[in-house]
Write a structure and sequence with these properties.
globular, Immunoglobulin-like, 13 helices, oxidoreductase, Cu-oxidase_fam, alpha+beta, metal-binding, signal, Cu-oxidase_C
C-alpha cells in the first residue's frame, strides 16, 4: 500500500524532533523511514526553510499632504546601501560562514527582517508595481568613501584597485521606462555619502511580468551584484483580454498564488551567486574560513576568472538561503518567477524526484555532499512549463526539463508535483557551462522540495494523468471560473481553444510580433551589428563589442567601451533587425529599454544549433546568450523614449572590463533620418 509524506512531518520532525517522529514517518512515507535518520546532524534545518523575499516597505505619505484616492498611483521607497553583517550556510563545511558584504537594506540600521545589523540576509527586497504607477527609489549610499588617489585609474575598463567599489547607481532590468534624467539612467554615479532619488513612470500599457533591479556602476557592477545587491521587480497585471485587446496572464494564474496570501511576490525565486572569501586566506578560493573568519568581496580577482564562480566553491542561493527546504503540495499548480542574478555562470535548472528521500534529507547536513547529488536525484523529471521569459508572456507554453538560466534571464514556469516525497532542485552538469570558455563540472544542489499529499486534489486527479494534461485541466478550470462581466464567453472560447490547440497564449502576449512582410522590409534596410570579442592588445586581454565580424580582423581599441562615444544611433518610431555574434566564448547580450523578438538562429559553420535555443524563435526577451559559431537575428522597435543607454554582455566582469556600448535614440528629422539635436545642431 502506498502512503505519502505529509508536510507537517517534513517541516517539524526534520527540524526539531527526529526520534519522536520516526514512527509517523514510517506510517506515511512511500519508502521505509522506520530507521534512525540521525537528523540531529542537520544544522538548524528550520532556519533553511525557504521564505519569500521581503517586500520593500513604501515610504509614508508626507505629513503635509492630505490623503487622496490617487495615492495608489505613486509609491516611494528608500534603499540604504551599506555594509551589513550576516551569515551564509556553507554546504562544504555544513556550517554557517560569517560574512560582511555590501547590501541593499530597508532601514538605516536594521536588517531586512527588522532584526539587528548582524542578522542581514543578502538579497534585496521585492518591489511590486502596477502599470500606470510612478515609483521612486531613493538611494542612500552609506558605503565608506575612499581616498581619490587610492581609487585612481588611467583606464576606465581596468579592474578597480582593492576595495574601490563603493560608487553605485541603479538599473531596473527589463522595465520599459525612460533611460534619461533620473529615470533608468545608468550613466550616472552616486558617490558615498550621496542620496539620489530615481523616478520611474511605469506606462499604463507596460507588460505585467518578472523584472529585477541591481547596480550598474561601470567597473563595480560585478562586485556589487555578486555581493547580493539584487532584487525582484514584479509588475502585477489585472487586465482582462477582450475581443480586440490582449490582457495579463496574471488574471488566470491568480488561483495558483501561494496559500499564505502573499500574492505574486510570494512566487519569486531569486537566484544569486556570492563568491565571498576571507582576507586571512589572501582571498584564495575554496579555502574554508577560520572559525572567527569573516567572508568579504573586495578584490576584483574574486570575480574575473572565467571560472571564478566554480573556483570559489560557493553555492547558488535562493531568496538568501543556500540549499533551502521548500514546503509544497502534490497535485497543485505552482508558478515560480525565477530570476538568475548571477554575475557569471549558467544555471541549468532541473527538478527531479528523489527515490530515497531519507538519504537526501540526511545529505542536507553532511559536508561535501556534491558527489552524491546525481545519485540522490534519481527519479522522474518534473516538467517545467515556461509561460514567460524575461517578464514577457510567450505566445505558447514551452515545456522543458532542462531550463537554461543565463545571467540576467528570468523564467516564469508552471509545474506540479505528482507524488509525495522529496524532489531535488539542482544545476544539471551533463551539459556545457556555456558562459565560460571551458566545459566545467559544477554540480550543485540548489534546494530540496518536501512534498505532502494534497487531499483536496486527490478526488479530481485522473489515474495516469500526464503533467501536460494536469496543466491543461487546471488552466481550463481557471479560465472557465472567471466572471463573465470581465471575460465574455466569446473571449473565453478563444482562450480555451488556444490552450487546447498547442497550449497557446495568444490573448496574453504583450507585444505584437513582426510579420513576414515586416521582416523582409527590415532586411532591405540598415542592420545593427553586435559581435562580442576578447582579444590580446598590448599584451592585455581586452573585452570589446565590435560591428560586423568581417569588419575587424585585427581588433582595435575603438571597440573597447568609451563612455563618451555613441556606438549606435537609432531613430524613434522605427524598427530594425540586429545581428548578434561572438568571435570567442559565449556572452549573454542585454540591451536596456526596448525588448526584442528572436527571428532567426543559425550556425555559421553549418553545424547543429545549440540545444538551449530550442523553441526560442518568436519569443520576446531582453537578454539572450550568444554562442560562438552562431548567428542570431533579433527585431526590435524604438518606441516612446529617446535618450542614451547601453547594451552589454551580462557576464558582469566582462561588462566592467569594456564589453559594453552606448546606444542613443534620437528624434526623426522628417527626411528619413535622425535629428542630431536641438538649438540648430
Amino acid at each position: 500500500m502506498s502512503h505519502r509524506l505529509p508536510r507537517r512531518y517534513v517541516s517539524l520532525c526534520l527540524a526539531a524532533m527526529p526520534f519522536a517522529c520516526s514512527a509517523a514517518f514510517a506510517a506515511e512515507s512511500t519508502v521505509n523511514l522506520n530507521v534512525d535518520l540521525n537528523l540531529q546532524s542537520v544544522p538548524k534545518l528550520e532556519l533553511r526553510l525557504l521564505q519569500e523575499p521581503p517586500k520593500l516597505k513604501a515610504r509614508a505619505r508626507p505629513a503635509n499632504r492630505a490623503a487622496s484616492k490617487r495615492d495608489e498611483y505613486e509609491k516611494a521607497y528608500d534603499l540604504y546601501i551599506r555594509y551589513a553583517n550576516g551569515s551564509i550556510y556553507n554546504p562544504t563545511t555544513a556550517k554557517h560562514d560569517k560574512v560582511r558584504l555590501r547590501s541593499y537594506q530597508q532601514t538605516d540600521g536594521l536588517a531586512l527582517d527588522g532584526r539587528d545589523e548582524n542578522a542581514a540576509t543578502f538579497m534585496a527586497p521585492t518591489v511590486v508595481m502596477a502599470p500606470g504607477q510612478t515609483v521612486r527609489f531613493k538611494l542612500h549610499n552609506q558605503l565608506p568613501a575612499l581616498p581619490d588617489e587610492q581609487c585612481a585609474t588611467s583606464d576606465i575598463n581596468a579592474a578597480r584597485p582593492l576595495g574601490c567599489f563603493n560608487d553605485t547607481n541603479l538599473h531596473s532590468h527589463g522595465l520599459w521606462v525612460s533611460p534619461s534624467g533620473n529615470s533608468d539612467n545608468v550613466l550616472i554615479s552616486i558617490k558615498p555619502g550621496v542620496d539620489f532619488e530615481y523616478e520611474y513612470n511605469i506606462p499604463i500599457d507596460h507588460p505585467a511580468g518578472t523584472f529585477w533591479y541591481h547596480p550598474h556602476q561601470h567597473g563595480a557592477t560585478a562586485m556589487q551584484v555578486a555581493s547580493g545587491m539584487a532584487g525582484a521587480l514584479v509588475v502585477e497585471g489585472d487586465r482582462y483580454p477582450s475581443a480586440t485587446a490582449n490582457g495579463d496572464l496574471d488574471v488566470i494564474l491568480k488561483p495558483f498564488q501561494p496559500d499564505d496570501g502573499s500574492g505574486s511576490a510570494g512566487e519569486v525565486m531569486l537566484l544569486q551567486q556570492i563568491p565571498y572569501d576571507c582576507p586571512s586566506n589572501s582571498l584564495t578560493p575554496t579555502t574554508p574560513c577560520a572559525t572567527d573568519g569573516v567572508g568579504v568581496l573586495e578584490d576584483f580577482g574574486q570575480v574575473n576568472d572565467p571560472n571564478a564562480w566554480l573556483k570559489s566553491g560557493r553555492y547558488t542561493s535562493v531568496n538568501g538561503k543556500v540549499q533551502p527546504v521548500l514546503k509544497m503540495k502534490t497535485q497543485r499548480l505552482y508558478r515560480w518567477r525565477m530570476i538568475d542574478t548571477g554575475f557569471q555562470a549558467t544555471v541549468v535548472l532541473r527538478i527531479r524526484r528523489a527515490n530515497d528521500p531519507q538519504k537526501l534529507f540526511k545529505a542536507l547536513g553532511v559536508a561535501n555532499q556534491d558527489k552524491d547529488v546525481m545519485e540522490l536525484c534519481d527519479g522522474e523529471d518534473v516538467t517545467q512549463f515556461e509561460v514567460a521569459s524575461d517578464g514577457l508572456t510567450h505566445d505558447r507554453i514551452i515545456p522543458k526539463t532542462l531550463n537554461y538560466l543565463q545571467p540576467g534571464y528570468r523564467s516564469d514556469i508552471l509545474f506540479s508535483l505528482p507524488k509525495a516525497g522529496a524532489y531535488c532542485v539542482y544545476a544539471e552538469t551533463n551539459v556545457n557551462n556555456m558562459t565560460t570558455m571551458h566545459d566545467v563540472n559544477n554540480t550543485r544542489l540548489i534546494g530540496v522540495i518536501a512534498a505532502r499529499t494534497n487531499a483536496k486534489a486527490s478526488a479530481r486527479v485522473r489515474s495516469g494523468e500526464s503533467p501536460r494534461d494536469f496543466l491543461l485541466a487546471e488552466l481550463r478550470n481557471a479560465v472557465q471560473s472567471l466572471p463573465g462581466a470581465q471575460l465574455p464567453d466569446s473571449v473565453k472560447s478563444t482562450i480555451l481553444g488556444d490552450l487546447e490547440n498547442g497550449l497557446k497564449l495568444g490573448k496574453f502576449v504583450p507585444h505584437a510580433g513582426f510579420s513576414a512582410a515586416a521582416k523582409d522590409a527590415m532586411r532591405g534596410k540598415k542592420k545593427e551589428y553586435v559581435t562580442f570579442n576578447i582579444a590580446k592588445l598590448g599584451g592585455k586581454a581586452r573585452f570589446m563589442v565590435e560591428g560586423k565580424p568581417e569588419d575587424s580582423p585585427i581588433p582595435e581599441l575603438k571597440y573597447v567601451y568609451d563612455p563618451h562615444r555613441v556606438d549606435h544611433t537609432l531613430v524613434l518610431g522605427t524598427e530594425q533587425i540586429w545581428e548578434l555574434a561572438s568571435k570567442n566564448g559565449s556572452h549573454p547580450f542585454h540591451i536596456h529599454v526596448n525588448p526584442f523578438q528572436i527571428i532567426g538562429i543559425s550556425r555559421t559553420d553549418g553545424g547543429a544549433v545549440d540545444a538551449q535555443y530550442k523553441d526560442l524563435i518568436g519569443t520576446w526577451k531582453d537578454t539572450l546568450l550568444v554562442i560562438e559559431k552562431h548567428k542570431i537575428e533579433i527585431a526590435t522597435r524604438y518606441q516612446r523614449y529617446i535618450g542614451e543607454y547601453v547594451l552589454h554582455c551580462h557576464i558582469l566582469e566582462h561588462e566592467d572590463q569594456g564589453m559594453m556600448q552606448n546606444v542613443k535614440v534620437v528624434l526623426p528629422d522628417g527626411k528619413g533620418g535622425g535629428d542630431a539635436g536641438g538649438h540648430g545642431h
